[in-house]
Each structure stands twice: as structure tokens, then as C-alpha cells.
UniProtKB/TrEMBL annotation:
Region Disordered: start-end pairs: 18-67
Stretches assigned to the Nudix hydrolase domain: 213-371
Matching InterPro entries: DUF4743, NUDIX_hydrolase-like_dom_sf, NUDIX_hydrolase_dom
Protein known as: Nudix hydrolase domain-containing protein
Alphabetical list of CDD domains matching this protein: NUDIX_Tnr3_like (cd03676)
PANTHER family: THIAMIN PYROPHOSPHOKINASE, THIAMIN PYROPHOSPHOKINASE 1
Organism expressing this protein natively: Hortaea werneckii EXF-2000
Spans through the membrane: none
């Protein structure tokens, strides 16, 4: 922390976020604006024209049309959850194609994150109430008209990472942001348009900056014998079952909910496969040799999540994510066991039992999405039984409008 003015950070934490004027779509804030207009035409977005200023005070003298209210993200509560409900709960950032006004209401609320060497490349989205904390701080420039936050220090990954680390440490020291109470001492990578590492950031701070984060999820399954009914002949048949852990109730995020067999974040410098090997040992006590030999990479799942209260810390923080997905078929005599305090225990569940738990909302939102992907790939979820099949399959692989690895 040498050379970093912590008192300046405390001084610039505002009690009230200033009202910002209506502005046209910034020239540097366009990567998610699919509208193409001729030079010289009005670039004001639909929601901004309607005065959408979520997360900011409302000007009572405004003559604009009624504001589009960005409601607090909440878990879906009504009855049993459909597969589409599960997807909507995780991938809940609006799509331009299906809800244009709400899309622009969100886009024009946030500040875009940049670094000085890439002034036209958006790296994430930040709430105004977060961006204003950076006003007047060393290493950062806040532009309220362009609605941008720029890291102006550093010409390489090491220098940028140092500046970001000092800022995050100072933010943690003030206690201003609840999300930083889950400090992990783990670094997440942030990439540029050529897949170059731009800087690393403390895991718990990544949602404050709205950058893409990466994880690995593995579904461990087995084919267990079950007796056939009396009306069937031929003895026993095999039944697909999955190993499902329950998260410890004391976890800061999604405590007590069901999870994928193995799941975790991918740290800077770590490959997805090495991450899944490490997590398999740490979370499920699975032998390294077994995982290395039998775990199969089966693709990715991507989504754009707006965090609700279950994620811990502030709500409405943005979490675009890419999960590298693995399958592992286990022999019947291999039983996952907790090896840390993050998991209460494992249960071998039938497909029907997993479906029931999904409908009851027992699974962590992104784990539910990974299971939908598993069901699609294993022929459990089919077009014949799922009316929203094509939408679900396509949205399991959402294109994120930020640079990715």
C-alpha cells in the first residue's frame, strides 16, 4: 500500500450520487449498441430518451416520459420452476432482440470500464454508485458524460495489476462494499481483444468491475443398477445418477444450496483442466490420476448474470461468466467426499430426483444451467418434451460483448 492515499479514497466515497444529465450514446460506449446510424443523426438511445437513470436520484422537475424502473433482481418465486425459468434466473441481463427498451435502460445505467491503452474496448460494466467512488483517486479517471471509468496507470500487465490491487485493497480497508468481505486472496484474469492478459483482479472485487470471469464445472455421474418392475423381463437395468453436493450453510454465497459435483473459479495463469483437477481434490476428494484420465472437456456455458441477494454483498452487480464444462463417469465404488468446509456432503441422485430439485429451486443458479447443458448432451432434455428447447440450447452459449480468453 506504499504510496497509496487511503484517506483520499475515504474522502471520495460520496453520500449522495449526483444527478447526471441525459446524454447521447457516447462514441466510446458502443460495443453493445447494435444500432447503426448515419453520421450526423441523433444517437440518443430509446431508454435514455425516456429518462432512464436507474441507480441515480430522480429529478422531479424532469419533463421526460416516465422512467423505466430497473427492479431489484429477485429469485423466481412462483410455483415449480420450468427449465426456462432456471435459465432466466441465471442469464438475466436483457437481450436487445427481445426487450430493446429494457436493454438500453440497463446499458445507459452503467459506466463502461476501460484501460488507457485500449480506449475503445469495453472490459466491463459498473454501477454508477460504484464508479463515483473512484472520482479523484490516483490511477483512475471517471468521465460522467461519457459514463466511463478508465485505468490511466500502467503500460503492461504487471503495472496495471499493481494499480488494481492497491485500489481493491483500499476499498476493502474502508469496508464500504459488502462484497469485499468475501475476500479470497485469489486473482482472476481480465483479457483484451487479442486474448492478451491485461491485468488481474481480486476475485471478490471482480463483480464490482463487471468483468468477465471464468470457472470450471464438472458433473460426476455413474450408471447404477436398479431392479426392473415386475412387468418387465430381463433382470436389472442401468440408471443414470449424478453426484450432487450441498453447499455449506455458512458459505457467504448461495449457502445451503445444491451445486455441481465440482466447481470453482479459474485463477490467473491456470488452465481450465488444471483448475478442475485441483478443485476435484479440494472439494470432492477425487484422486488426481482418476480425474486426469477420465474427465472429459465437453464445451462451455456462458451467461450474463445480474446478482441478487443470494450472491452475497451488493445486489445488481454484473457478472458475465464463462464456465468450462467437464463430465466424469465414475465407477460405482468411487464416492466423492468433502475435503474442506465448503460442502456439507454428497448424495447420489437419480435424474428424476435432480429434476425435482431443479423445479424446487434448490440448485445454485449457474449450476442449474450447467445441469441443463448436461441433460441436453445426454439426451435427457429433448425437443419433444421441452417446448423452449431451441431457446434454451442457444442461450446456454450466450455471446458476451466483452473480450474473452
Amino acid at each position: 500500500m506504499s504510496g497509496f492515499n487511503l484517506d483520499a479514497l475515504k474522502q471520495y466515497i460520496p453520500k449522495d450520487i449526483p444527478q447526471l444529465p441525459n446524454i447521447s450514446w457516447p462514441k466510446t460506449h458502443t460495443s453493445m449498441n447494435p444500432d447503426e446510424q448515419e453520421e450526423g443523426t441523433d444517437r440518443t438511445s430509446p431508454s435514455m430518451a425516456e429518462g432512464s437513470q436507474a441507480d441515480l436520484p430522480v429529478d422531479p422537475t424532469s419533463t421526460n416520459e416516465p422512467t423505466i424502473v430497473l427492479t431489484e433482481p429477485e429469485p423466481i418465486q412462483h410455483g415449480p420452476k420450468s427449465n426456462l425459468d432456471l435459465l432466466n434466473e441465471c442469464d438475466n441481463f436483457p437481450y436487445y432482440q427481445t426487450d430493446t427498451k429494457m436493454f438500453f435502460a440497463h446499458i445507459n445505467t452503467y459506466y463502461a470500464l476501460y484501460i488507457k491503452d485500449l480506449p475503445d474496448v469495453e472490459l466491463g460494466y459498473i454501477l454508477p454508485s460504484v464508479a463515483q467512488v473512484f472520482s479523484g483517486l490516483p490511477d483512475w479517471k471517471v468521465d460522467n458524460r461519457e459514463r466511463s471509468l478508465t485505468l490511466i496507470t500502467g503500460s503492461n500487465e504487471e503495472e496495471r495489476s499493481k494499480a488494481v490491487a492497491m485500489t481493491c485493497q483500499a476499498l476493502k480497508a474502508t469496508g464500504h462494499f459488502q462484497v469485499l468481505k468475501g475476500w479470497r486472496d485469489e486473482l482472476y484474469p481480465v483479457y483484451g481483444p487479442n486474448k492478451e492478459l491485461l491485468f488481474s483482479i481480486e476475485r471478490s472485487a471482480s463483480a464490482l468491475f463487471g468483468v468477465v470471469t471464468y470457472g470450471c464445472h464438472m458433473s460426476a455421474y455413474t450408471y447404477a443398477k436398479r431392479p426392473k418392475s415386475e412387468s418387465e423381463a430381463g433382470g436389472e437395468e442401468e440408471e443414470l445418477k449424478l453426484w450432487v453436493p450441498r453447499r455449506a450453510a455458512t458459505k457467504q454465497t448461495y449457502g445451503g444450496m445444491l451445486d455441481n459435483t465440482v466447481a470453482g473459479g479459474i485463477a490467473t495463469g491456470e488452465t481450465p483442466f488444471e483448475s478442475i483437477v485441483r478443485e476435484s481434490a479440494e472439494e470432492a476428494s477425487l484422486p488426481e490420476e482418476l480425474v486426469r484420465k477420465n474427465a472429459k472437456a465437453v464445451g462451455t456455458v456462458t451467461y450474463f448474470h445480474i446478482r441478487d441477494r443470494r450472491a452475497g454483498g451488493e445486489t445488481r452487480l454484473l457478472q458475465p461468466e464463462c464456465q468450462y464444462v467437464y463430465d466424469l463417469q465414475l465407477p460405482e465404488d468411487v464416492v466423492p467426499k468433502p475435503s474442506d468446509d465448503e460442502v456439507e456432503g454428497f448424495e447420489l441422485k437419480s435424474v428424476d430426483e435432480v429434476k425435482d430439485a431443479l423445479r424446487d429451486g434448490e440448485f445454485k443458479p449457474n449450476c442449474a444451467v450447467v445441469l441443463l447443458d448436461f441433460f441436453v448432451r445426454h439426451g435427457v432434455l429433448t425437443p419433444e418434451e421441452e417446448p423452449a428447447y431451441s431457446e434454451i440450447v442457444s442461450r446456454l452459449h450466450r455471446r458476451l460483448e466483452f473480450p474473452m480468453a
